[in-house]
Specification:
alpha+beta
Length: about 90
Amino acid sequence: MSVDPFRCQITDYFEAAIVLKYQLEVTHNTHGMLFGIAVDMKPIDRKETVIFKTPTREYRLLLDDISHVNVLTPGAQFKTIPYFLG
C-alpha cells in the first residue's frame, strides 16, 4: 500500500490547525462555504475526515469533498491548506 505524500501534508496542516485552534474558511462540495474550527480528524471506511465545528453545527467532512481551505486567524503560521484540487 503506497502513501500519498500530498494527503499526508494536508493531514499535517489540519492537525496543526486543530492544535492551534485556527479559524478556517472551508469550501465543501456539498455544504458550500463553512466558517469555524477543525476539532478532530477521524477515518471512516478508510477515508480521512475532519470534524469541523461552526457556531451552529458540527460537520464530519471527507477530505475528498473539500475544495479549498483558507486560514482566517491573524498571524497564523500558514494562510491556506494547499493541495486541494477541487
